[in-house]
Amino acid sequence: MSLISDLIYFENPAIWDSFGGTSSGLGGLTWQMFIWSVVVGVLVIVWLIYNLIYFRHKEGDPEPKDALKAGVFPHERGDVKIELTWTIAPLILVAWLTFLSLAPLDYMWDIPDNEDADVTVEVTAGSWYWGFEYANGYVKPEEFTKCSSNINCLEVPANSIIRFNITAQDVLHAFYLPDMGIKQDAVPGLDTATWVDTGIVSARDEPYRIYCTEYCGNSHSMMLAEIYVTEVNDA
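Now predict its structure.
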């Protein structure tokens, strides 16, 4: 019941919230895969319905050659051309989508080093909260005024490369920032990392929401945090 009430009362991200992502190429790839999935799915369903209606058994129809009979091995009926078509066509489609994915995925997986990022943030997941610490001696600018605590609240500069070093204290969690298209597991005893260019989103007074997307206990759905993107005067 607690999970049902959480779904009713807490805002949940829509799948399209993450279609922008760290790379616009990745968002475009997601849309292409989605569109092709819909096209192929519709074609398959239409083809099945057509065959169900057109080839259904009617009164007076002769018994098909491959009809099942007790003690008789059924006659094999096939079409080599059709079998080759439904094997080669999906293979080409999958190969094409794989080729398209190489560049945007490589871009996303090319995580900048701590020294190369504008800001490095140490993220610690616990039941049920997110803890944030700036790394490498980063000093918060005076424009950062929205977070009174480093628990469940983070402020980062606009138009900057942000690296997140992520770990967990207790059980598996997952750091998910749908508006910026990033998701990374938080694993006890293991350091993982992801990154984002805050230039892909707007600096604003309202926060972007961080979710946990790995079930981690009774209050999993309430493991929420806020991240603010703030314009900083570099002068």
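DSSP finds three helices and nine strands in the chain.
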